[in-house]
Amino acid sequence: MEIERSDLILARAQRWERELAETVYLTQPLGGGRVREYTWAEAIGEARRIAAHLQSYGFPRGSRIAILSKNCAHFILCDLAIWMAGYASVALYPTLDAETVSYILEHSDAKLLFVGKLDSWPAMKPGVPEHLPRLACALSPADHGYPEWEAIVARTAPLEGELAREPDELALIMYTSGSTGRPKGVEHSFRTIAASTRGLEQTVGWRRDDRLISYLPLAHTFERAALECCSLYSAFHVFFAESLETFVADVKRARPTIFQSVPRLWLKFQLGVFAKVPELKLRRLLRIPILSHFIKKKVLRGLGLDQTRLAVSGSAPIPPDLIQWYRDLGLELLEGYAMSENFTYSHLSLPGRSRVGFVGHALPGVEVRIGENEEVLVKSPASMLGYHREPGLTAAAFTDDGFLRTGDRGELDSQGRLRITGRVKELFKTSKGKYIAPVPIENELNADSRIEQSCVMGSGQPRPFAVVLLAESLRAELEREPAARGQVEQALARLHESVNARLAGHEQLEFLAIAKDPWLIENGFLTPTMKIKRSVLEERYAGKLESWYTTKTPVIWES
């Protein structure tokens, strides 16, 4: 894929500054229903002034500047200012603990930190070195004492003219979410970013009148590439969510034409619908020809997705039954597959060409093959430069002929569509010497509306088992009515039996254990992108296995 200088992200942003000066680019909620809108001229203008301020520190070209913030307009403006000033950005998840904050800032050799919109700054602040300069964005925590964005913009002259970067200069370092240990810093250049954004524009067909809402972590590659960088490349309108409590109202304000999410949230949206209309009742209503069309529209309008022309799930496997549920409503939920290491540019299922359970065809310029242990190997024009300060890990990540070792197991169908069947390292062996792939079994369990998430384990045990987290609404119901526990247990026993009937003998689950505590980002059970941390869960339940296996019942409640 040939990349022209006009394809580079800064060139595209400055093009919109000229051509779409008065067009609204960003819509930021301020609370109480108020919003601040930034036109392209205002957004790029503020970034030019902050870039001039950054240059006043005298940092060497290519220095790393860190951003610690939840999603907001200023996250994107910070990236633009950093790139305009000649530097590379390092984004930190806004849910990290102080130890990880300290590690990333030291490992990246960050020269300055933008402090943005945060809920738990006091818990993270001890991880920031005392000597590190800090700038406060709008919506940052109060009483910080750092130079403020608005004041800097008011007093600083902007950098003028066309601000260009070389294609192979370092643009950003993205630290992985740490589901398998300490986060690694994935390096991308302006060329690899352009390969991803240009290829996605050609494939998706972004339109100037498209509207997207940003709520998945911008520090993660999914949102950073497919929303931030694609919006800078293709000039669509970006809305932001204010908070979890206002999320539905924020979505309804945006009325997104394209909506992307992760499997756990697609499941939560479905369970929210079932909380208002029981699953069996909704199913009956959708079978009535006169009512079906009206009910589908009402459900999608209630989710704020009635104007969505493209819906995508990514970041983790999604149960095929959940995809089909949305399609039955008239929303063709598509699945994508990629990694931080190829800047979200690998595979995408497309309308009319998709197959439920498959993540789609390779995107333009991408090559794929299945290697040893059924590992998916991908060569992408958006492949990373490498892992920051980790030459050994970088070398191990690629084959001799340049294919990225994804660590995922998969298979290709006759039309070249890819299906992900699990992680190579997630395979475990029972005491009987049989290998278990947990993800397909988890997808079977997660398809049940009573289950929010599951984790299949059992390394070294006679047979595997699953710990399941009940749906939030069901947990709340059991708190209100403990007597309903027996009914739930019977339903889960039937689920245990039906899932086992679809599995090979060595894969069949010994029991389902019902988790007592929720699995959250905050308690360390989930990554910032809501993937389960298997090692944490295995450690959490290890001490209970002996008693669980001797119970000899299909459903066990964690005590």
Describe this structure in words.
The protein is of the alpha/beta class and 559 residues long. It folds into 3 domains: 5-196, Rossmann fold (3-Layer(aba) Sandwich), CATH 3.40.50; 258-306 and 308-416, ANL, N-terminal domain (Rossmann fold, 3-Layer(aba) Sandwich); 426-557, 2-Layer Sandwich (GMP Synthetase, Chain A, domain 3). 36% of the residues lie in helices and 21% in strands. It contains 19 helices and 26 strands. A 7-stranded mixed β-sheet has the order 6-5-3-4-7-8-18, sandwiched between helices. α2 packs across α3. It is globular, with a radius of gyration of 24 Å.
> Low-confidence segments, ≥5 residues, pLDDT <50?
none
- N/C terminus separation: 56 Å
What amount of the residues lies in strands? Answer: 15-25%
The radius of gyration is 24 Å
In the CATH hierarchy, the architecture of the largest domain is: 3-Layer(aba) Sandwich
Oligomer: single chain
Please give the structural blueprint.
Blueprint: H1 9-19, E1 24-31, E2 34-39, H2 40-55, E3 64-68, H3 73-84, E4 88-92, H4 98-108, E5 110-115, H5 121-124, E6 134-136, H6 149-155, E7 170-175, E8 185-189, H7 190-204, E9 211-214, H8 221-234, E10 237-240, H9 247-254, E11 258-261, H10 263-276, H11 279-286, H12 289-303, E12 310-313, H13 320-328, E13 333-337, E14 347-348, E15 361-362, E16 367-370, E17 375-379, E18 386-387, H14 391-397, E19 404-412, E20 418-423, E21 428-429, E22 435-436, H15 438-446, E23 451-457, E24 465-470, H16 472-480, H17 485-501, E25 512-514, H18 534-541, H19 545-551, E26 555-557
Parallel strand pairs: 1-10, 3-4, 3-5, 4-7, 5-6, 9-10, 11-12, 12-13, 24-25, 25-26
Antiparallel strand pairs: 1-2, 7-8, 8-18, 13-14, 14-15, 16-17, 17-19, 19-20, 21-22, 23-24
Helix pairs in contact: 1-2, 1-8, 2-3, 7-8
